[in-house]
Structure formats: C-alpha cells, structure tokens
Amino acid sequence: MVLKYLTPLFAALIVSSTSATAIPAFDLQGREAFAPVVVTPNASTFWIIGTLASVSWDASTVPSDADPLPWLALYNTSSFGSAIYITTLASDFDAHAGSVEFTVPDVDIGSYFVMMAAWGQDSPHFRIRGSNFIISPDADTVWTIGQEASVIWDPTAVASEGPEFFWVDLYNTTIYGGANDVMTLASNFDTSAGSITFIVPEVSPGSYFIMREWGQSTTHFEIVA
To answer: DSSP letter string over 124-152?
Structure first.
C-alpha cells in the first residue's frame, strides 16, 4: 500500500483524533512511501528494556522500487484512549529487509504499540518489561533436592495493569550449549507477589538455571542431593 509519510508525532495526533483508527495524512513534504503491515510485535510479545528487539513485516508485499521506511516509533495509550508518542526506534531502514532491530529504550514498564512509516500502520498492544526481573536464584544459590526453594523477582518490574500468570521452568545446558527444559516448577501464579516457593524436585545433581517466561532466565546455580 502506498501512503503518505507522517512524522511520528503527527501520526500520534492522527491516531488520537480517530481512536487509533488509521487514516491517510501528509507531512509537510507530502512524500509517498510504502507502509507495510506490522507482523510482530503482537499481543503475546514482550520486550525487555536494554535488550535487542525487532519489528517485522511481510517483505514479499514490498514493491521493488519502495523507498527506505522513514521511521518506526513507539507509542502508548492514554487513559482517554488517545495515542501518545514515546520515542523513535529506527529511521530510514530498508523496506525489503522484512525486519529492523534496535535496543529497547528505557521506558516505563507497561503496554505499548508501534507504528511504522505512515498513517497508523500500527501493531497490537504488547508489553515492555524491566531488565532486572529475577533476583534469585543467582550464581551463589544452592538448592537441595526434597527441600523448599524459592524464585524471587522484582514485583515493580511487572506491568501495572495487574497480576499476571506465567510459569517457572527448570533448565540445564546440553553438551552442545543448548537449553534443555527439564520440568515446570510452578505455573499459574500471581507475579505481583514477587516470589514463588516449591519443593526442589528429584533431578540429577548438577548445574541448572530457571526461566520465568521466555527470555527471563537466571544465571546457573547448583542443585545438590
């Protein structure tokens, strides 16, 4: 779809005035650009502050003569339902690449969406989380099989919309360096509590790490008999 360029801030004004319904608009230069539909992030996506993230689109839909995409911007939604421009994530990137990568900026924990290049080519809302979720276990932790242990995280790094329910899985590392999912330690718990306690399962003594939803992993620690 060939659309007119907007500046990211003007895009926010357009979306605000239409309750996040995209409409065509012009910037001062009146330039035309192809604006692909955002594929990811989607409603199940979360980004972690300070880590690499990406936005993707279907490159097969991009015309061969398409110009670079002028901007990719981050927005959240006000209590009145209007779009609030937060920051620009990338600019002047290849429309044919199908994705663009960047470092997640240091923003408030919460719900956001992205808009790319034009009049409301926006993603579903997704979450951005803090970079220091898991406090314990750490490298000095030792769990004993059959005894109580806990996973502790920073509850202030949980999005402000309310309690959320995830899982804690136990992993070890294969001889090839990959992650091996050993078992689920806990699931369907209130993340605003800041910790979860369980009995250490019967596993082979050795080095393990845990993951609290994908990407939220600890350092390796020891489990002993």
So the answer is: PPEEEE-S--EEES-TT-EEETTSEEEEE
- Which is higher by pLDDT, 161 or 216? 216
Q: Which amino acid is at 138?
A: D
Q: Are residues 17 and 121 in the same domain?
A: yes
The CATH number assigned to the domain holding 69 equals 2.60.40
Binning the chain into helix, strand and coil, the percentages to the nearest 5 are 10, 45, 45
170, 206 contact by CB (below 8 A) = no
Dist. CA 206–CA 23, nearest whole Å: 58
Q: Give the number of domains in the chain.
A: 2
Which pTM was predicted? 0.57
- Say if strands 142-144 and 221-224 run parallel, antiparallel, or are unpaired: parallel
Tell me the mean pLDDT in the region 82-100.
Answer: 92
Local structure of 174: helix, strand or coil: coil
pLDDT tens across 111-130, in order? 899 998 866 678 999 988 77
Residues 158 and 212 sit within 8 Å (Cβ to Cβ): no
15-38 pLDDT tens trace? 443 333 332 333 334 445 577 889
Q: What are phi and psi of 9, to 5 degrees?
A: -70, -40
